[in-house]
Design goal:
By secondary structure, the protein is of the alpha+beta class.
Length: 167
């Protein structure tokens, strides 16, 4: 009996992990899909350069040295809009630096860049404009969804045309 318990333990201890991960490029976006066969959960990560894309949000990282708290954002040749991420109410446990509470991050709803090709962001202090190629996001998000990503997100929220760094 002890021997069978030991063999069973050995069998389970040597079973490889239940996480299967695949990485592929879809319309210029790097799509990483991880599926845990034990829990049945699928997690996804979609990136291109300094950008991360989900059905709801496009996150652009300009770098920790950039104060993006009042950055101006322009989609294609449309009007510029001022982006504001924080309301500047801090808790003592906040990991944000008071000298740069934005952390150089710009978060936009994907619906705001739907169908766009170029996203331009102007840094407020230096007036440096950085551009990002945002074409192909809709295709990439649809491919991610077909792979089991974000299965609860309504299809209408997947309306983004990718963003890529066009420096």
């Amino acid at each position: 009996m002890l021997l069978s318990a030991l063999l069973a333990f050995q069998l389970f201890a040597s079973t490889p992990g239940t996480l299967q991960t695949s990485v592929r490029e879809v319309s210029g976006w790097r799509l990483k899909v991880s599926h845990d066969s034990f829990t049945g959960q699928t997690s996804c990560d979609m990136r291109r350069g300094a950008m991360r894309l989900t059905p709801q949000t496009l996150v652009v990282r300009l770098g920790g040295h950039v104060d993006s708290s009042a950055a101006e954002v322009r989609v294609d040749q449309g009007p510029a809009h001022i982006f504001s991420r924080y309301d500047y109410r801090f808790s003592p446990d906040s990991d944000l630096l008071l000298s740069n509470p934005s952390g150089g991050v710009v978060e936009l709803p994907t619906s705001g860049v739907s169908g766009a090709r170029v996203l331009a962001i102007e840094e407020p202090r230096t007036h440096v404009v950085r551009t990002f190629d945002v074409s192909g996001g809709t295709t990439a998000l649809q491919a991610a969804r077909a792979a089991g990503c974000w299965s609860t997100a309504p299809m209408s929220r997947i309306a983004v045309d990718q963003v890529s760094d066009a420096r």
